[in-house]
Amino acid sequence: MDFTEGSALGVFTCELCELSSPYSFYGQKPPNTRAIVLLEECYGMKDPFSPEREKFLVLGSKCCLCSKTVCVGTDCSLFYTKRFCLPCVRDHLHQFPEQVQNEVLRKKSVQKMSAS
Amino acid sequence: MSHEREKRQSWDWDSPQCRAQLDEVFFRQHDYIQTGRTEHKEFWTFFERFQRFKTKKEMSAPKSSRQESHEGKSKKKSGSVDLGLPKDYDARYRINISVCSKDIEERLGGSEHRRRRETSGPGRQEITDCRLALLHFLDFNQKQSFNKLSKLRREQKSLPIFQYRDRIVELVRTHPVVVVAGDTGCGKSTQVPQYLMASGIDHIACTQPRRIACISLAKRVSFESLNQHGSKVGYQIRFETSRTTSTKLLFMTEGLLLRQIQQDASLGQYQVLIVDEVHERHLHCDFLLGVLRSLLPLRTDLRLVLMSATINIKLFSSYFNDAPVLQVPGRLFPIQVIYQPIPPEEQASRSEKLDPRPYLRVLQGIDQRYPPEERGDLLLFLSGVAEISTIQEACQTYATHTQRWIVLPLHSTLSLAQQDKVFDIAPPGVRKCIISTNIAETSVTIDGVRFVVDSGKVKEMSFDPKAKMQRLQEFWISRASSEQRKGRAGRTGPGVCYRLYSESDYDAFASYPVPEIHRVALDSLILQMMSMGLGDPRTFSFIDPPPASSIQTAVTYLREQGALDEHGELTSIGRLLAQLPVDVVIGKMLVLGSVFKLVEPVLTVAAALSVQSPFLRSAQHNPDCSTARQPLNSNQGDPFTLMNTFNAWVQVKADRGSGSRKWCRRRGLEEQRLYEMVNLRRQFKELLRSHGLLEDDMGRRTEPQDRARRRERLTERQKLHRLKRDHELQENTKRKVLRLEEGLEGDASSGSDGEGASSSKKRKDGAEQTVDIQEVKFKLRHNVNELQEAASADLSSRQQSLLKLVLCRGLYPQLAMPDEHNANRKDSEQVFHTRNKQGVVIHPTSVFASDPEVLHVPEHESSEFGADKGQSNRHQLLAFVTLLETNKPYVSNCVRIPALQALLLVANSVDTNADCSRVVVDGWLELGLTDGDTALKVISSALTLRGEWERLLQAQLRQGGPGSSAGLGLSGPKVSRRELEKLCEGLVRFLLYTEVSYSLRRLTGLQSQNLYIGPQQDPDLSSASVLSSLFPGMKAEPDPIKGGLRVCSYFTYNCLCDSKDLYSECLRTFWSCPHCDLYMPLTPLERMQHEVTCRPPEEQQPEEEPESVNASSSSSSALTRLYHCDICNKDLTLTSTEILKHKRQHLS
Ligand SMILES: [Zn+2]
Ligand SMILES: [Zn+2]
């Protein structure tokens, strides 16, 4: 399978932060990676920043609750056995372990501080 | 259990054997990460950190208590949808990757798994540990790359131009021409092409005024469009291209796009053309705009985007039928302007050095006002290199004293390593003080500048058509430049701009700089216009037409060069020259050299003269460098020194590879220039080949059939390619931190520009370790053995003199004559004169500056007194490449040539008196030959040689000319090797062995005004008919202006005001021909005629030359006489030569 440029399947756009980039695979199996399986259906591309040629980069996936397409950036989503967009995480915050809760709360306060 | 524990104790994570065992599980040959690769190494480094982190965490936070509290919390609040999340937090759950390693594969396969466990090897725990680390490693890499992507996208979005994205695309869709105006930092150059690409346009060309910008923009845009190894974005410049069939966006120089228009007038290959930096008003850009303006009506589907700083936008818009303008605000931080005019007592007069006090005060002021913790560098604009070194010296003293500054010069003649230093970072508490020419105004962008000092001055090149001379003069800058300089202080934060002039000065500045088209010589431009069939250059609708006089000067010059004929039409050589992307003089050398089979040396010289000098100025004062350079010097001239240097370098490259860097350093050579030369040389070669001027067998020597060797070469190339790729990836790595002594070192060595040997020596160790990427590229691009072969062939003296002739004809009319009193002057006071400029001097970098004696006429050979005064056969002239006035008018890149011989062979106008004892060349040089016999002989053989040279040149050009089935060497009347060799032989003999004493002097203004006798009422028709038979194919006619007889385009006989004219008939003297037994009284003309037709028997060709035979026999020559042949007993009317032929007939 060839996933060099030119074979882009479409453009991935995060519904929260609008980050967008062409993607060249979708699914749990990035091309040319014998032993690697993703634990979610992902949008991905060839890693443009990797010195090695055949590396992949996961751009994002769908939130398991609201099905929004979100990027893997920590401001938009997190993975905890499944992908959750941050709004959904906040809605169900109490179900996440403390570490995750703290992380999300901390992010909120940081965001507020930088916004003010 | 105990078994496991035992194993664990014997397990050592640091042992290579243990790691190797895990490598077999996780990093197999086809795995995502493979043993031996960089990532594999990185993993184990990561692993160590990861283990340390884990132990630390385990020790600090007891797991059990945490878990408890968490479970308590989550239970309390449950009630909504159960997400089914694991209760116990594990960082593993945060990773969306799993790895199917060998152990899992085996477990799935269920085969040998059990037996394996028995043998020694990693236990379950080790595998688990390793897997966990691997997952974290992969996750870490994902995060890193994603952060880069997200940062990139954030940066793109934050550019001021981003919000105009849709508007730009829309405008381009709906208008043939759009002007996008925005200041530095708005992102237009990188973003607009991307917006258009994203909108689905597949064929975009974007022009840039500078080559370097083409490369860096292509790299940047390619990176931003996440297409690093792909080829959608490429560049094409003079030396190289990264273009492929899939290229959608191509960055190229303006000149190159013009060349493409020459090939394909409709530019069918592009949908959109972006012309960037139009406000800079470069010659090529102005011309390009004119050409595109006339192309638009023919290609209604073509879209043109002009990008400009916010300068003079209306001009561009109205030139293109009021094209819509999209103005993008720049992203500049506020800049405080402080006017600090230089007090009169500190103003330097013209002759003095610049007073550094005003500049030092600014440095002091910054030190007083701003705490050193507040970062921000200083950029100081001066007009030129000399000014920079004066101020640099003073600032360095201050910097050494305060330890708060690192002083760095920046100008284009510095070595690239030195230029590169300005991008390095100053240590904390220290500021960079970059002292620059206007190169930092637009071409070089340095981040982190907070303070700008603007001297308000610039040195600009202009062309003086009267003196035919380039001039580098200091001017006040324009308001536009002044603002541009100021803007450099506000790129990364609020800044301060100190203007060392008053506000009223500023108001008096011109609004914009003078466009290049008004300043420079237009030769190449006019030549290109002619070949593009754009009609009369005077009526072409330029955006800002150049003065008619400039155009006229260029036309005259091109005519002198032989590129245009007297009707202003392109000659065949002119047509070819227009195709070559080089200066007219260089192009001429290439063409002439290829005719003489002097291709290899001419390629080298032409390339060397087209790039900046590789000789570093500062190394001149370094005795070690001078000594090491000595063997490279040639007192024939600078082109020969350059050639020797290049050839020696090629030898070093072939023998020692990357050792060449050291070799260059020792000789004070900038190796980059030599790389440029070798690249250019190759391009010239391809040009000649594609124009059929080069036989193909030279380059395509069949490779050795040996398979092993071929494979070896292939492996080496693969290795080189990998090295190159690795280097490209490393290129974006961080800048290094400067040391405080950095500025000092450069200065200490020589006290000049600051690129001395001592600093290089100290830098050496670091530099040597890194891959020499230039060496890698060199090896990829060139066949070293082939180059070596071409470079090792020493020129024979025969070839050398031919090469000099080729250079001279190429450079003509750029000739200078030594002043007659030079022999009595000091070396430093040698003076020369060109036709249009008196009193020029040789540039100190030239070999003739240090060794002027070789240009003097040896005293014992020149008689001092009487009629023979100044008579010698050793007079020489200089042919030069450039005449540039800075503080003095300098000629540089000179070659010395024998005066009489060279002039007779290349000059456009050779006029003589009746006995040819007085020859005036181009109306300014007078040659006096006392011996009339020799004078005639010399002129006559020069005419013959020139005629033959011209004939062969034309034949060669016809044979190869553009559009022919070039390269095969079979088409057309092939110039025979024999003819060529004979011509070479003749020219060499003429150049080296013409024994004639003559005087050489310049004519005074008055003399050159009253030079000619003018048209005569009663022209001497008898001599006209004599002359017409003299040179078959040349019509001797009375010259309507000069008088006398115009024998051919460059030779007019008997037109000089000379007392002897009237008695030309009386000049008949008895003369015996050395070749036949003719003995009779003849006039000089008659004698010449005889000499031309009567060749020595060994020179006569066996093949018949019917044309010349016919011509001479059919002409009713004044020289025929009645001859009675005793053998056939007939009375015949024959010329003396014919008589001879007739006699010979009876002999055979
Ligand atoms: Zn997002
Ligand atoms: Zn969601």
UniProtKB/TrEMBL annotation, chain A:
Lineage, top-rank taxon, reads Eukaryota
- List the InterPro entries hit by this protein, alphabetically: CDPF1, CDPF1_dom
Membrane-spanning parts = none
Q: Which residues form the Cysteine-rich DPF motif domain?
A: 12-104
Pfam families associated with the record: C6_DPF
**Similarity field:** Belongs to the CDPF1 family.
| Protein name per the record | Cysteine-rich DPF motif domain-containing protein 1
Taxonomy of the source species: Eukaryota, Metazoa, Chordata, Craniata, Vertebrata
From TrEMBL, chain B:
Keyword line: ATP-binding, Helicase, Hydrolase, Nucleotide-binding
Q: What is an example of a GO molecular function annotated in this UniProt entry?
A: ATP binding
Keyword Nucleotide-binding listed: yes
Give the compositionally biased regions (Low complexity): 746-759
User: Which segments constitute the Helicase ATP-binding domain?
Assistant: 169-329
Q: Does the keyword Phosphoprotein apply?
A: no
Under SMART domains, the record lists: DEXDc (SM00487), HA2 (SM00847), HELICc (SM00490)
Q: Where is the composition biased (Basic and acidic residues)?
A: 57-72, 696-718, 725-742
Kindly give the PROSITE patterns that the UniProt entry links to this protein: HELICASE_ATP_BIND_1 (PS51192), HELICASE_CTER (PS51194)
- Helicase C-terminal domain: residues covered: 365-533
Segments carrying the region annotation (Disordered) are: 57-83, 696-770, 1091-1115
Going by the entry's taxonomy, the superkingdom of the source organism is recorded as Eukaryota
Recorded protein name is Putative ATP-dependent RNA helicase DHX34
